[in-house]
Design goal:
4-stranded antiparallel beta sheet, 7-stranded mixed beta sheet, 13 helices, Beta-lactamase, alpha+beta, single chain, globular
Length: 369
């Protein structure tokens, strides 16, 4: 009886959330003429298993999630935002900055920012401003690292994007460039001044003019990180919301076009970002890739599985600390976004996708597929 009651309650919550999403989407469209915000869909009519969707929603809520958004075929299947718990004061102070029109927190999405920067790099390449086959020192001059001059000169821009710079987190020499995967955020952060030097513009201006404005991301901007986080080797955080994160995912689904049909990044440049790198088949250029025979993970461990075994093989992802996620699956026209604190479950990605694959329609069953 208790299980029946809980399932009924879960369905009522889902229905209420769907109604709220419809109202919120309608209000946003009225307040922003020409906006291409996704409309709400009835999950059942779209072919989703609503009981399994309820189970997924309950699970992510139990995992210190603040925002969870599912979009399929440009329709909002599920959207909910939760407040921070009473024990999250430090998280709130260090990672959040206000809320958006949907009540979602604007959060520093940690290393998920890397995938936004990847898009900026692809645009810079298309504009003829950036050549990732050139040494980093071509743009920054000598001495940007602690490697010897001859070692530093061999580090290409693409090595920063593929996590194969051969540098330590203190930017000292460890291995020849291009030979070893080492997930190195301080080395990645060098991409920001590289983009500024290559374009002659500030990072804020590049991001706004090339990406956030064309893609309709209204709540995404760079901010200096507070306190100790500013000394982490990557002092600027990208603050954004689930809706804006989903727009990055939609850009991938639409081969580089914004919702209004305008080209943001050429399809060829986007495809290059999602090619498997030579040193880690689960990593492209600042994007994570599913479907590989093995995975080298951020902490350096090798697993003899794909990134997320339960997920479709064509999944690509922007992933950040505290379990920030943008999952994109082209074969299902699917985008899933998660924000919040670090999930208590160590296997959070796998658990989400085990539940999600029970809820998502089989190919061809959902409306529009």
């Amino acid at each position: 009886m208790m299980q029946t009651h809980e399932a009924s309650a879960g369905r009522l919550v889902r229905i209420a959330v769907t109604c709220l999403v419809a109202v919120a989407s309608s209000c946003l469209l009225e307040s922003a003429p020409g906006s291409k915000e996704p409309a709400a869909a009835d999950p059942a009519k779209a072919g989703w298993n609503t009981a399994a969707l309820d189970d997924l929603a309950a699970y992510v809520q139990s995992q210190k999630t603040t925002g969870f958004l599912i979009i399929q075929d440009r329709k909002v299947i599920y959207e909910h935002n939760w407040p921070l718990g009473a024990d999250a004061a430090n998280f709130g102070a260090n990672f959040t900055h206000g809320t958006d029109a949907h009540g979602a927190m604007e959060e520093d999405v940690a290393s998920a920012q890397k995938s936004f920067v990847a898009i900026l790099a692809g645009i810079a390449i298309d504009k003829g401003m950036l050549d990732i086959a050139k040494p980093v020192s071509f743009y920054l001059g000598p001495g940007w690292s602690k490697a010897a001059p001859e070692q530093e000169q061999r580090i290409l821009v693409r090595n920063l994007m593929e996590m194969s710079s051969g540098l330590t987190e203190r930017l000292g020499y460890e291995a020849p460039a291009g030979e070893k995967f080492f997930y190195n955020t301080p080395a990645y952060a060098i991409m920001k001044p590289v983009l500024e030097k290559a374009s002659g513009l500030k990072l804020d201006d590049i991001t706004r003019e090339w990406l956030t404005q064309p893609a309709g991301m209204h709540d995404t901007l760079w901010r200096e990180r507070p306190g100790a986080f500013s000394r982490s080797g990557n002092p600027t955080g990208l603050y954004t919301t689930p809706r804006d994160m989903a727009k990055l995912g939609q850009l991938v689904l639409d081969n580089g076009k914004a919702a209004d049909g305008k080209r943001v990044i050429p399809a060829a440049q986007l495809a290059a970002l999602l090619e498997r790198s030579a040193t880690n088949p689960a990593y492209g250029r600042l994007w994570w890739l599913n479907g590989s025979a093995y995975t080298l993970r951020p902490a350096g461990a090798r697993t003899e599985t794909s990134l997320i075994p339960a997920a479709p093989a064509d999944l690509v992802a922007a992933l950040g600390a505290q379990d920030r996620k943008i999952y994109v699956v082209r074969s299902r026209k699917l985008i899933v976004v998660r924000t919040g604190q670090a999930a208590p479950d160590r296997g959070f990605d796998q658990q989400v996708w085990l539940r999600l694959m029970k809820a998502v329609p089989s190919r061809g069953r959902s409306a529009g597929l």
